């Protein structure tokens, strides 16, 4: 049914200007003004994410966007230099998973990819994930 259809994801934030700075300046993504004052974030694979302001925004309790990288540790270091905190979960939060290291990276094993989580200014959870296990 949707095999030839374009698709996009969307999520809310509490402040569109702060989101524009974070996704554009801090993360270095291609952020464009969209319809009705919302944002279009263009990703490297020609996909896009639609970010909209919601006055009663409540951050999702799950990861809304994953960024694939060849080197999670290097990417985490770059995020930390840009002021992004990557250790957002304690070991108790991830009881059924391997513990995070001091940088907030969950090191992969044969069943799990290496991953580190962080939040945007609105509290939405994002992640960097290893390109391969």
UniProtKB/TrEMBL annotation:
Q: Where is the VOC domain?
A: 4-131
Q: Name one Pfam family in it.
A: Glyoxalase
Q: What is this protein called?
A: VOC family protein
Recorded source organism is Cryobacterium cryoconiti
């Amino acid at each position: 049914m949707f095999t030839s259809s374009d698709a996009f994801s969307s999520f809310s934030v509490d402040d569109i200007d702060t989101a524009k700075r974070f996704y554009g300046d801090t993360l270095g993504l291609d952020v464009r003004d969209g319809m009705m004052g919302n944002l279009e974030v263009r990703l490297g694979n020609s996909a896009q994410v639609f970010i909209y302001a919601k006055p009663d925004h409540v951050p999702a309790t799950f990861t809304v966007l994953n960024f694939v990288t060849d080197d999670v540790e290097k990417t985490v270091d770059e995020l930390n230099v840009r002021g992004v905190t990557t250790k957002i979960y304690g070991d108790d939060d991830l009881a059924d998973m391997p513990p995070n290291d001091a940088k907030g990276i969950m090191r992969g094993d044969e069943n799990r990819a290496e991953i580190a989580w962080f939040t945007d200014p609105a509290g939405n959870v994002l992640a960097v994930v290893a390109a391969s296990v």
